[in-house]
Write a structure and sequence with these properties.
The protein is α+β, with helices and mostly antiparallel strands and 198 residues long. The protein is 52% helix and 23% strand.
Length: 198
């Protein structure tokens, strides 16, 4: 097991709920290392998500197919939790999939183990509750952006709030995520970079 990855996982968990040493020892035993190659599907559409992931390094992309078009709608990278979360929670076939955009090192825990940890430890259950709330808030904000902001406004918010993502994710996927053509994305990026230089 990658000790650094486990340490990073513990730091991320502690942001939501403080874990006693004995709880961490029990919880950490249920995670296993998993590495995905570039282009590998972590979770296929139509399959049931059996695992919840922590990304130690690399990038994962959430995607769906709409009339045959591949649509990107989210990315997770170093220090973030991932997985097809709705399928994980209700153990039903996934409406969307998860793909590695580069070699990605993860830790993962099974649904069965996660539910057992919730039952066994109050602090783990608290972590799950706070994490779920954060996910719901994030989904609400994303819906607001999609409905109320123009593609250019969404670009500017992403450029301002997550500039590092422009180095991690291919342009075509970012354009899809923002709901614009790759050409429009390229033009806006060029404009913002020119403005930054001047």
């Amino acid at each position: 097991m990658n000790v650094k990855a486990l340490d990073h996982l513990k730091e991320s968990l502690q942001r939501f709920s403080l874990l006693e040493d004995e709880v961490w020892q029990d919880f950490s035993c249920h995670w296993e290392a998993m590495v995905f190659s570039k282009g590998e599907h972590v979770t296929e559409m139509g399959s049931i998500e059996r695992y919840f992931y922590f990304v130690y390094s690399g990038v994962l992309r959430g995607y769906a197919l709409n009339d045959g078009m591949d649509i990107s709608f989210g990315f997770t990278y170093d220090g973030e939790f991932s997985g097809v979360y709705d399928s994980f929670l209700d153990q039903k076939p996934a409406d969307w999939g998860l793909e590695a955009l580069q070699k990605t090192e993860t830790l993962r825990i099974s649904f069965k183990s996660m539910m057992k940890m919730y039952d066994d430890h109050k602090s783990i259950e608290r972590w799950g509750r706070v994490f779920n709330a954060k996910m719901l808030v994030g989904m609400g904000r994303r819906q607001l952006e999609v409905r109320n902001f123009s593609a250019e406004e969404r670009f500017d918010r992403l450029y301002r709030d997550s500039p590092h993502i422009f180095q991690l994710v291919p342009q075509k996927h970012l354009a899809s995520y923002l709901g614009m053509t790759p050409e429009t994305f390229s033009r806006l990026r060029r404009q913002r970079m020119d403005e930054k230089r001047n």
